[in-house]
Specification:
It is a single chain. The longest helix has 6 residues, at 30-35. The protein has one helix at residues 30-35, and strands spanning 3-6, 13-16, 23-27, 39-43, 47-51, 56-59, 67-71, 77-83, 89-94, 107-111. It is mainly beta. The strands form three sheets. Strands 4-9-8-7-6 form a five-stranded antiparallel beta sheet, with no helix packed on it. A three-stranded antiparallel beta sheet has the order 1-2-5, with no helix packed on it.
């Protein structure tokens, strides 16, 4: 069942074709930890920006391998895009931008991105 992803101000909205994730990553890298991101991995083709594509901006750091996408009006990071370990296009959805997500019910897996 599809679920919605939206920024704080509502300028950017997206839909994910799939079930609401029950598992997510909490990364301790300098970027994810300062923003408090809770990220769920999906195939990139499951994500469709339904409105506000023109308000999305990108931020890349370190190895510039991940494209962190955020709203230029409110600064919310809805998702990031990159390539998975198997070479396929993937996205990481920030579950904090999913209104129906119950984060207390999501299994959070720590990831040591600070050591990379």
């Amino acid at each position: 069942m599809p679920y919605q992803v939206q920024c704080h101000c509502g300028a950017v909205q997206a839909e994910v074709d799939g079930d609401l994730p029950q598992e997510a990553v909490s990364c301790n890298c300098s970027h994810c930890s300062v923003k408090g991101l809770v990220l769920a991995a999906i195939d990139r083709d499951q994500l469709k920006v339904s409105s506000g594509e023109d308000s999305l901006r990108s931020y890349k750091f370190n190895k510039h391998a991940i494209d962190h996408r955020f709203c230029d009006k409110c600064g919310s990071q809805l998702f990031s895009e990159g390539t998975g370990p198997n070479g396929t296009a993937m996205a990481m959805i920030n579950l904090r931008c999913v209104p129906e997500a119950n984060l207390s019910a999501v299994k959070t897996i720590p990831y040591d991105g600070a050591s990379l």
